Structures are given as structure tokens and as C-alpha cells.
Fold:
Amino acid sequence: MLKLSKRLQAIADYVTTGSRLADIGSDHGMLPVYLLQTGKCPAAIAGELNRGPYEAAVKQAADAGLSQLLSVRQGDGLGVLQPGEADTITIAGMGGSLMSGILEAGRLAGKLDGVNELVLQPNVGEELVREWLLKHSWHLQAETILEEDGKIYEVLHAVRALEADRLNAALYDGAFLALPYASEKKMEIIKAMGPYLLRRPVPVLHTKWRQELAKLASICERMAGSALPEAMVKLEQFKEQMRTIEEVLQCLPTDIPSSS
Ligand code: SAM
Structure:
């Protein structure tokens, strides 16, 4: 049986047992092969845009003796799916902008009809994914943050829920943040940093945002020499962003143990 990385394992763990899976941007098809091998999924589709990874996934399925259960398809995003073919969609290892673009194009084409669960691991731009989920009434049921090989990843688990909007309203209510900000600003913070992650701020969450602060500080340092008015406006925005991150981090507990 394949051994998954910690990141892919966290994604696999969120997939509901018995669901028909579509892994989009599957690369070598590791995730669907693993989920078929464990019996967690009875059938799966691996979608890949590019020829090289598509062929690697075809080979992976054949080597594992799973060509009958894993349908490997080359194409763009959810375009490889017929409506109703999958219960769970996983998309991992790409930016939040590309990921929400794939979800939106798929939604407009009806490819999400019948899909009950999304497991998403954006490499950057997590706020764009949370924003898309909120806008289209997917309930964010859980999320996790983990570190592997010096990189930090977030995994989001969203489901269809009858009262998704009500559940999300409670989840994104910023009252739990002890900061004197307007609710709109708190909402932006929660979308960026994660509603569950902020409520249970494990050490790696602090690490992630300390790293983000260091990146912003180095950008500000480089911009400080510029006399261009646009650069000065941008610089002020970055400084404001840094102040906000600092204030949020200061109001979060630092004694939450890591979950694993
Ligand atoms: N999902 C795997 C993982 O998390 O380990 C692979 C991630 S890999 C960095 C991203 C993959 O997405 C690449 O194989 C790339 O070819 C594929 N990809 C990028 N844009 C895509 C799209 N619009 N539709 C399908 N696949 C896409």
C-alpha cells in the first residue's frame, strides 16, 4: 500500500468512507490510489490538465492493479467530470486563486451537482477558497494546519449542509476575537487565518503568521527607499496589515498543544 505524505494523509483522512472520489490536479494519482487501496473509496477519478502527470497517474493506477477502479482523465479542472459522478472532490497543491477558479467554472457547468464534500488544500491564498465556499453556501466543517519538510499547509473540509449559511454565520462571527475591530475587518481576518484555526491556535499557526510577518517586513524594507506615491500607499497598506497580524497573534493563546 502507498505511504502518503503527512499533507496528503490529512486530506485522505477528511474523505468520507464510501464516497466516490474525484481528485482534480492529481499529478501521480497518489491520493486516489491510496484511497482505493485502503477501501475507503469504492471508485475514483483522477483529473489532470497536463500530459506528463496524466501519464504518471495512468501508470500509478496500472502498477497498483487499479485501472478498473481508477479512471484517469486528462482535462481542465472539473471539466473531466460528468454531473453526478463523484460524491467527494479533492483539490490539493495549487494556489487558492486557481483552485477557486476551478470550483467556480465547475459550479457554473453543473459539475458540482450531487457533490457532497470538498477537501481542499490551497498552497497560498486560503482566503480566496474560504470566500468561495462561503459565497456558494458550502459549510466549512473542519480545517487543519500542519508542517512537513519545513512547509506549512492548511487543509479545508467543506460539506453541503441544509443550514450552511446559518452555520457559516456562526463560524465566521468574530465575537470570539478579543479585538476592538469592526465586524467586517474581523471577517477578513477570519477568512485569511481560518475560523477553526483561530479558535484553536496550535503552535504551527503562530509559526505561519510569524513567517508571514517576516516576509512583509522584508518587502517593506525594500520599498522604503521608493519615493513613488503608489509605492508609499502600498507600503502603508503592508504596515497596516502587519499591525493587524501582530495584534491578532497577541490576542491568541500560545499554550494550545499540537494535535499530533
Ligand atoms: N494534487 C497533488 C498533490 O497535492 O500532491 C498534485 C499537486 S501538483 C503541485 C498540481 C497539479 O495540478 C499538477 O500536476 C498540474 O498539472 C495540475 N493542474 C494545474 N492546473 C490544473 C487544472 N486546471 N486542471 C487540472 N489539473 C491542473
